[in-house]
Amino acid sequence: MAFREDVEKGNNSAQEEIREPLVQGAKNRADEEDGSDVQNTSQGNHSMVYLSTFVAVCGSYAFGACAGYSSPTQDSIREDLSLSLSEYSVFGSILTFGAMIGAITSGPIADFIGRKGAMGVATAFCVAGWLAIFFAEGVWPLDIGRLATGYGMGVYSYVVPVFIAEIAPKNLRGALTTANQIMICTGVSVSFIIGTVLSWRALALTGLVPCAILVGGLIFIPESPRWLAKCGRQKEFETALQKLRGKDTDITDEAAEIQDYIETLERLPKAKLLDLFQRRYIRSVTIGVGLMVVQQFGGINGICFYVSNIFESAGFSASVGTIIYAILQVVVTALNAVVIDKLGRKPLLLVSATGVVIACLLTGLAFYLKVHDLALNAVPALTVTGILLYIGSFSAGLGAVPWVVMSEIFPINIKGAAGSLATLVNWFGAWLVSYTFNYLISWSSYGTYLLYAAINALAIVFVITVVPETKGKTLEQIQSSIGG
Questions:
Q1: Got the DSSP string for 240-269?
Q2: What angle do CA 401, 405, 411 make, to 5 degrees?
Q3: What distance in Å separates the CA atoms of residue 353 and residue 390, rounded to the nearest whole number?
Q4: Are residues 216 and 278 in the same domain?
Q5: Is the dihedral of CA 264, 265, 270, 275 positive or negative?
Q6: Of 43, 67, 119, 259, whose CB neighbour count within 10 A is largest?
Q7: pLDDT in tens, 237-263
Q8: In total, how many domains does the chain have?
Q9: What pLDDT, in 10s, does the model give residues 312-324?
Q10: Domain range enclosing 367
Q11: Do 433 and 312 sit in the same domain of this protein?
Q12: Which burial class, exposed, middle or buried, applies to 252 when counting CB atoms under 10 A from its CB (0-12, 13-18, 19+)?
């Protein structure tokens, strides 16, 4: 999974020293794919891998439950606690502010106390947050609880996919990693659906369920073998890897490969934040950060957080619309995971962004008709069509593909710093959009969607002119083409 470092001519000797084990390791792994390694992998007992993935994606589900909480509860919380629109906007958006903090600190936490430890920390914050929301009698406990669950979300967003990628055998890694995104969407969708029949306090308690499963599951699953190897805990590393692959599986080759890879990583220069803006890295950083801007500033979190109110304001059943929205989101996200390696990244992004532009125009038209008392009978149908087309189109590409491309374009020696920057930009965009959504709607309901349509139109231009197609290329080929 390593990128070949693009080193300037003055560092040729260091380049060869680092590149040789990387290339040799890649060659050995390619040879193994046709030989004994595949045999060992296929004969191994993967039950512990599946169990560990299930436990980890409970964190993904908890992430989704946090994100989906504010939409079905807006009216009831505002009524019960006498919150103004401004106060509820703070409550809805402070989640993403907490997630920004969690995303920034997640890497150091996961490196210091391990992947399991980081998931435990995230779960503790989520539990404390949900309890604060459940017992809240005023705005401050409500906001503190929401901030705490947001922090847990931010940590989950980093550590869950990293943990899954580090424990999975290579022939299962892609399929298992996609479970993270599917479970996030499932958590959002279930919150939307059951939020139509539960009170806001009862819905907060349901957020404790995945947390309880995760905490219990962490007792039985092993730590990431790669993290243990990185920390020099050799015996624990071998024990964890053996447990994941099955007691009768020969792990000698895989263990040696992991050790060689980690030794190579230790020899690569550690990049600082300012190093990201060097000429050799600027294009990959522009692509990674730009895709996060494209993903968030097109309005997804505003629509996701307040979808039930959008349906209500258009004169359509909030419960029916929210349920359809939730189911569609999960189904399309699952289909996206199946076709991404067949159709390519760039076509999915372009189709997704085009669909979102059309969806925003339809929704904007619906609210324009409502504001001007024109064809009022058509408003609910146009709104439902626009919103469902929006989430379907977004889930088809813009939801997951930016994260995939980001994981492919950064050289290994800047991946941590560049990934943190891109993740921070993503969560900042999520916070800004969710915070400003209600204010924009108060300013102009149809104007808000026209603004989002314009941003997504610019996204199409960005994808066409800047984003490369990475399907079917090795990581070294991708980095070479971007650096060249």
A1: HHHHHH-TTS--HHHHHHHHHHHHHHHHSP
A2: 160
A3: 9
A4: no
A5: positive
A6: 119
A7: 999 999 998 888 888 888 888 887 677
A8: 2
A9: 888 888 878 878 8
A10: 274-483
A11: yes
A12: exposed
